[in-house]
Each structure stands twice: as structure tokens, then as C-alpha cells.
Amino acid sequence: MSFFEITRNWYGRFERPISSLSLIAGFVFDALTLKRVDTLWENCWIIAHLIIVGVFIALIHLKKNEVGDEKNPSKAHFWFVNILQFFFGGLLSTFLVFYFRSADIFVTWPFILLLALAFIANESLKRHYIRFSFQISLFFLSVYSFSIFLLPVILHQIGPRIFLLSGLVSLIFITLFVFVIFIFIRDRFNESKKLIFFLILGIFLMVNFLYFTNLIPPIPLSLKDGGIYHSLIKDVDGNYDVSYEDYGWKGYFQMYPNFSEVAGAPVYAYSAVFSPTNLNITIIHQWQYYDDAQGKWITDFTINLPVVGGRGGGFRTYSEDSNPTPGHWRVNIMTTQGQIIGRLRFNILPVFTLPSFSYAIKQ
Questions:
Q1: Whole-prediction pTM value?
Q2: 84: which residues sit within 8 A by CB, 6+ positions away?
């Protein structure tokens, strides 16, 4: 038996754990290496994955296969299915990384959950890879997720019109792809037309619902840095010198960390928002406090702030409140359409003497 046959059979025997480990390793790799949604390398990486996925969807169905070929490592069909699954995993992990970075998870968790479920389904529902409708559904979701942030990068605009255009582009693309496939395999998959139509329509309507209810992260925007500070001074080098209360590692587990305030002292909300090159926008700092009597958040005031695109660490800006009342507060960093880029939470605790501060420089 040749080395190739030994390796092939070994992979066939341990296919499931190898596949799972490779997808997890791929996700970690993407999280560590993918930096910006507007760079040529990241977008070429995604486009290459989409091309490979499209090619192997076609290869799987253009050739007639026997039942069980997808489990037999000596058959080409086995490798086509495994390669398709691997590159689908790469696509979905890339989108999870990008969208998660652009989200306040407590606001946009439904769309993040949708991508996470697709990522899990890619691994756990492998037997469905022989079904054309399942492949097309994941392919359309991938193309749509890509279009949502690629078109703003190309057109240097964001908003409902650009989002609707991304949906139209995705629908045209998947329609042409399915049409080409059907030309060659019409006799075998003619009965799948209705199912594919309803699946694509369902994904399209769901994504639109999530967008217009502000539950999709405002990608390609993302909050690179943010915080609530006691003082904020811009120095001669253009950096921001800030002071804050350092709660150490415990601070990461506090939803509303205490902010000690002497009456009349200002509170500063700092944000560094990333926007792609040439995508200059206006963001909003919305200051809200929680009214216990009414049981809801009340907007105290909002302020519009300009963001110039292209800076890797995000465009830095801030707002302030001169005398917030005690209690729970949050500053929503959002687009003019109401999409949450990030959220700063804190609890105003009145004191007579301020505690000792830590200092940092925001470059």
C-alpha cells in the first residue's frame, strides 16, 4: 500500500475529529490575523473562499455519485464534500470575527447567533452537504454577509440604501449561480427549486428584519477603544491623557462599574471608532440614565461627532456630562440610523472625596 493510500485511509478513519480541530484552529487563526475589513488581503481571502466554495458545489453535483460515496475516502466525492465543508468553515469563521468585533453583543446577539449557528451547522450537519438546498442556503448567507460590509468599503457610504443594494447584489449573484448549475443538472434537482426559493427568501427577509430593527452590527464600523473617565486632556501631540478608577481584573466582570463623583465634576465618554478609508461619517453619543420609577432608560442628551475614516486605531473623539445624577448610566455610541457601535456602562456613585486615579495615554 502506497503512502498516499495510507494517508487517505487514515484521514477517512479520523475525519470527524480532524475536521472539528481544523475548523477551531481556523477560527483562532482568523481571530489573530484578520485586522481590517477594508484591506485588500482580507477581502481577497474571502473572495478566494467564495470561489472555491462555488466550484466545489458545482463539482459535487455535476457528477453522478453512488449512495455512501461521501463517506468513502477512495472516492472523489468524499474529498469534494470535505473541501467544501472546510472552506465554508473558513468563510463563516471570518464573518464571525468581523461581525463580533463590530458589535455590542448585548444588542446585536441575534445576528451573531445566526452566524454562530451556521458555523456549528457546517460542522455537525455534514450529511446534508449532499443536499443542494443546504449548500445554496449557506452560500447565499456567506455572499450576503460579505456584501453587507464590502459595498460600504467600495462606495464609501453606509445606510439603508447601501444595505438594500447589498441584498440586491447578493440575490442577483445567487440567482445566476443557481441558474448555471440547473442548466447542467436540471433533471436531478428540478424538485429543489421551490425549497431553494423559500430558503433564500427566508434568509433574505430575516437579515432585513435584523437590519431594520438595528440588530445587525454596523459593520464596517467598529469600536476600537472606549471608556468613561474623570479627566480627559488633549496634549500637544494630539493624544488624550485620561484618568480613571482602576478596579483591576474585577472590572471586567462588572456590568456597571462604579464611577465615584463629587457633585459638579464632569464625566467624559471617550470613543475610538474605526471606519474604512474615505468613509467619513457622523456618529452619536447618546447619554441615557435608568429611571427606576418608570423602569426604562431615559435619554438625557445626544451629541453628534465626526469620524474620519482610515485610522487603524479608530478616530478618537469624546463627549461630556457636567453633572450626571447618581444611578445607572450608559453612553450609546451609534450611527445616525440608530445602529449601536458600542456601549459604555457605568454607575454614578456620589462621594465627598475622590479616590486615587490611574492614568493612561490614548494614542
A1: 0.85
A2: 53, 56, 57, 60, 129, 135
* Distance in angstroms (rounded) separating the CA atoms of residues 262 and 16: 60
Distances (CA, A) of 233 to 129, 228, 305: 57, 13, 17
Contact 135, 172 (CB under 8 A): no
Task: Return d(Cα 257, Cα 251) in angstroms, integer.
Answer: 7
Domain extents in the chain? 3-212, 222-362
In this prediction, residues 95-113 reach a mean pLDDT of 81
Question: Measuring CA to CA, which residue among 160, 216, 161 is closest to residue 339?
Answer: 216
Q: Residue 2 — pLDDT band, cuts 50, 70, 90?
A: low
Long-range contacts of 163-172 (CB under 8 A, 24+ apart): 163/211, 167/204, 167/207, 167/208, 170/140, 170/143, 170/144, 170/204, 171/200, 171/204
Longest dimension (CA), the chain: 82
Of 177, 170, 180, 176, whose CA–CA distance to 147 is shortest? 170
326 vs 262 pLDDT, higher one = 326
Peptide bond into 220 cis (omega under 30): yes
Q: What would the DSSP string read from start to end of 197-254? A: HHHHHHHHHHHHHHHHTT-S--TT-EEEEEEEESEEEE-TTS-EEEEE---GGGGGG-
Instruction: For residues 359 and 340, give the distance between their C-alpha atoms in angstroms, rounded to a whole number.
Output: 28
The three-point CA angle 256-262-268 to 5° equals 55
- Give the H or E element holding residue 8: helix 3-13
**What torsion do the CA atoms of 8, 12, 16, 19 make, to the nearest 10 degrees?**
20
- Chain CA centroid to CA 54, Å: 22
What CATH number was assigned to the domain covering residues 222-362?
2.60.40.10
Average pLDDT, the chain: 85
Strand pairing of 267-274 and 315-321? antiparallel
Distance CA 310, CA 181 (A): 40
What are the backbone dihedrals phi and psi of residue 279, each rounded to the nearest 5 degrees, phi first?
-105, 85
State which H helix or E strand residue 304 sits in: strand 296-307
Pairing of β 340-350 and β 258-261: parallel
